[in-house]
């Protein structure tokens, strides 16, 4: 860090001797020729890979014009089609007009048409990226390659890439190693196609299930989001600071407070105290910054207490960089700098928006060049200190040097990776571990050879959710059940039953409701179709149209209700009259009110989204090849009127409702198995520690059932008495173990500062003396937890 600062001091001294005095104080930008302190690049330090990166950065910035610097802080997306031929091939002659000074990022080249849907094959993407890089390296003055970014929320968002379940489903696995393996797949595929940066993972804490982006998150708990989010980052980037083949730079999204918007409306204001902001919404970011060397962070669209995140210097400069020591880049969300002007109304024009954003710590404007080009004028007129511009440029250039782009900007088209059979097996396994069994009255696992009716709006539908690519295949519930039945002398009857919406696309605006009259005809047909079945598998819930990112008033995705869309409850009622066992599968991106289903079905799974192997994962679990092991990463409320429903509430919350239940229908951490597990009383390594001390808590877990299963051992704490109110319980550890029948496993957790600290009345992190409830079990529900008491003694009192 010292060398890095010295390099910039050296750079500043160099800049003083440059031809800055020739820049007019008017708004007219200078040309490249007027502001070029050094032009000889043959012996340039920045081209010498043996030189320290800080020196290379300083040398290169010292050679750049203001226009070239600003270009490095912008990206090209829609405008990239202005430098293409009619068949979307790169056209160098057009590029001279579009990006004459180079570019910082190339946005989502896997797309062909610019409609938001991927289209290029892996090899085609590499050919396109190589052509752009060749032009930048050979035809721009300084030869600076571009960073290429893609979406990779649940697999690379591209043609023939691997697509697993939405992040909310991966969080349900509570499996760190599995998470890392999945995101390693995405990293390899992205890197092989010329990508350097992925805009993932999302570590927003989701506290309002009306919000349409819940599926993109890792649930309601900050500790779980930090742990699973860290594994995603390590999967993308590896364990060390070096870039290795098959790795890409991750981006944490969205900082901060995005997951509890006013009214559940995407981008709505976040009315959050500094304490809650730090302890809940900023916790995953801080944890991953301090443990994962993440290279990029994306600011959030929303405002926090009146300050839009893209204009929040306290959050992005003081906290992120000052307190946490973050040295990476801060990226804007798409069009969010512009929205400081035309949505938040905190900037009178785009130039003011750009100045405020970069001063507040935003380094790069995505996805296109809208506001940041005005920074040339702002620097030339003295409205923006050029040192602020240089600092941001240095952060972007550092990634290019660290990635080795100046030495090797090209990728082999023959090496572009697509989905493999091994990837299928991994996604299939992840799907089984994501399925959360909420109820089972003895119907599961199913016996072989039965006639199974597969019914419902999600029974024979591609279910990927948002930010999805074009996987080479998708196995529907119907297809998976049919494949299993064909191999085991069973039979499958299919009937649609009802629909959620008319056909549409997550990317496109219209969402058209179905005719209830037509639906009721489908329900009547389904009742007749399945009358001879031994069991009904009923696939319900939501889809990518009923829960999605509401990125514009013409493209909405939030709902004021958690009721299931359309006539789904009518379908449940009609099938229940047949007196045939029902197994409910609830898909979609967020919690729904499934009380009617849980009342009338014999077994119920919360599935969210399970990925391209959905049907195979369902069959594996329903027939007992795999015992379910998923746990709820977000509480399932009884209705929208029961919000908020998160488990880690304060002691004065949830007092009760008149003539209604106040608790969640199913709490955070809950999930059943086909076997049974018992927990011993937790044992402390020592029952008393000092405020700066540590100990352990150990519990024995035994599989007392008849089949092998996986259990998630969960550690919760509660500070009995504190100077500032604390939640009734907080997750502070978890471990997923596999146990054969009769097997016992000892699980040990650390207890110390990291687990016990909180922000006191002076907003200082510390451990207070007193007693702590230490709770270990298999859900956040009190009935599922064993307890002991840890006493913490004030060190000063000793």
TrEMBL record:
GO terms for molecular function: beta-glucosidase activity. Residues 1-17 form the signal peptide. Pfam families: Fn3-like (PF14310), Glyco_hydro_3 (PF00933), Glyco_hydro_3_C (PF01915). Residues 711-780 form the Fibronectin type III-like domain. SUPFAM superfamilies: (Trans)glycosidases, Beta-D-glucan exohydrolase, C-terminal domain. InterPro entries: Cellulose_deg_GH3 (IPR050288), Fn3-like (IPR026891), GH (IPR017853), Glyco_hydro_3_C (IPR002772), Glyco_hydro_3_C_sf (IPR036881), Glyco_hydro_3_N (IPR001764), Glyco_hydro_3_N_sf (IPR036962), Ig-like_fold (IPR013783). GO terms for biological process: carbohydrate metabolic process. Keywords: Hydrolase, Signal. Belongs to the glycosyl hydrolase 3 family. This is Beta-glucosidase. It comes from Neolewinella xylanilytica. The lineage of its organism: Bacteria, Pseudomonadati, Bacteroidota, Saprospiria, Saprospirales.
């Amino acid at each position: 860090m010292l060398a890095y600062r010295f390099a910039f001091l050296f750079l500043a001294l160099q800049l003083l001797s440059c031809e800055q005095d020739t820049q007019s104080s008017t708004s007219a930008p200078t040309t490249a020729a007027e502001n070029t302190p050094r032009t000889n690049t043959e012996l340039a330090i920045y081209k010498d890979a043996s030189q320290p990166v800080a020196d290379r950065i300083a040398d290169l910035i010292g050679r750049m014009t203001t226009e070239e610097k600003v270009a490095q802080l912008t990206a090209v997306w829609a405008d990239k089609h202005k430098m293409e031929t009619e068949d979307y091939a790169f056209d160098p002659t057009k590029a001279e007009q579009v990006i004459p000074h180079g570019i910082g990022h190339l946005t989502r080249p896997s797309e062909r048409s610019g409609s938001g849907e991927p289209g290029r094959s892996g090899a085609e993407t590499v050919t396109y990226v190589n052509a752009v890089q060749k032009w930048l390296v050979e035809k721009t003055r300084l030869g600076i390659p571009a960073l290429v970014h893609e979406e990779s929320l649940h697999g690379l968002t591209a043609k023939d890439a691997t697509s697993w379940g939405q992040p909310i489903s991966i969080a349900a696995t509570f499996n760190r190693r599995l998470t890392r393996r999945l995101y390693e797949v995405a990293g390899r595929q992205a890197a092989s196609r010329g990508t350097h940066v992925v805009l993932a993972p999302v570590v927003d804490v989701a506290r309002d299930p009306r919000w349409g982006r819940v599926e993109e998150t890792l649930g309601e708990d900050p500790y779980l989001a930090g742990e699973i989010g860290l594994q995603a980052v390590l999967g993308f980037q590896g364990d060390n600071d070096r870039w290795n083949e098959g790795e890409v730079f991750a981006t944490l999204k969205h900082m901060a407070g995005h997951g509890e918007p006013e009214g559940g409306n995407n981008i709505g204001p976040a009315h959050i105290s500094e304490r809650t902001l730090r302890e809940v919404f900023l916790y995953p970011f801080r944890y991953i910054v301090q443990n994962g060397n993440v290279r990029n962070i994306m600011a959030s669209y929303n405002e926090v207490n009146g300050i839009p995140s893209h204009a929040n210097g306290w959050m992005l400069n003081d906290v992120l960089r000052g307190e946490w020591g973050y040295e990476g880049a801060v990226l804007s969300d798409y069009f969010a700098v512009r929205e400081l002007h035309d949505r938040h109304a905190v900037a009178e024009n785009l130039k003011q928006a750009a100045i405020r954003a970069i001063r507040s710590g935003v380094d790069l404007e995505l996805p296109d060049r809208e506001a940041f080009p005005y920074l040339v004028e702002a620097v030339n007129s003295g409205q923006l200190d050029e040192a602020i511009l240089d600092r941001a440029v240095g952060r972007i250039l550092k990634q290019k040097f660290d990635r080795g782009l100046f030495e090797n900007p090209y990728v082999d088209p023959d090496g572009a990776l697509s989905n493999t059979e091994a990837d299928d097996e991994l996604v299939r396994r992840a799907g089984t571990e994501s399925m959360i069994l909420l109820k089972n009255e003895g119907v599961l696992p199913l016996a072989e050879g039965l006639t199974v009716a597969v019914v419902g709006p999600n029974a024979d539908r591609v279910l990927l959710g948002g930010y999805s690519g074009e996987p080479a295949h998708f196995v529907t519930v119907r297809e998976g059940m049919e494949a299993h039945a064909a191999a085991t002398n069973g039979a499958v009857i299919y009937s649609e039953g009802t629909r959620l919406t008319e056909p549409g696309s997550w990317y496109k605006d219209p969402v058209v409701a179905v005719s209830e009259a037509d639906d009721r005809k489908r329900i009547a047909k389904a009742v007749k179709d399945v009358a001879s079945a031994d069991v009904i598998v009923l696939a319900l819930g939501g889809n990518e149209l009923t829960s999605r990112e509401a990125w514009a008033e013409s493209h909405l995705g939030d709902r004021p209700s958690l009721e299931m869309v359309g006539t789904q409850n009518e379908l449940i009622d009609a099938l229940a009259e047949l007196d045939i066992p029902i197994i409910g599968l609830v898909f979609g991106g967020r919690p729904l009110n499934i009380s009617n289903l849980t009342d009338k079905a014999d077994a119920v799974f919360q599935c969210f989204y399970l990925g391209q192997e959905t049907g195979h994962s369902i069959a594996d679990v329903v027939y007992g090849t795999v015992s379910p092991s998923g746990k709820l990463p977000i509480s399932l409320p009884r209705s929208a009127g029961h919000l908020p429903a998160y488990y880690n509430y304060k002691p004065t919350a949830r007092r009760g409702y008149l003539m209604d239940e106040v608790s969640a229908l199913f709490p955070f951490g809950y999930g059943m198995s086909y076997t049974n597990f018992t927990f011993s009383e937790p044992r402390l390594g020592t029952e008393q520690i000092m405020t700066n001390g540590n100990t352990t808590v150990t519990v024995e877990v035994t599989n007392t059932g008849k089949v092998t299963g996986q259990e998630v051992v969960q550690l919760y704490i509660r500070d009995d008495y504190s100077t500032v109110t604390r939640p009734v319980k907080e997750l502070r550890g978890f471990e997923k173990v596999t146990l054969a029948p009769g097997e016992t496993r000892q699980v040990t957790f650390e207890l110390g500062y990291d687990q016990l600290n909180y922000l006191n009345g002076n907003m200082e992190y510390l451990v207070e003396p007193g007693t702590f409830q230490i709770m270990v079990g298999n859900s956040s529900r009190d009935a599922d937890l064993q307890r002991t008491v840890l006493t913490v003694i004030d060190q000063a009192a000793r």
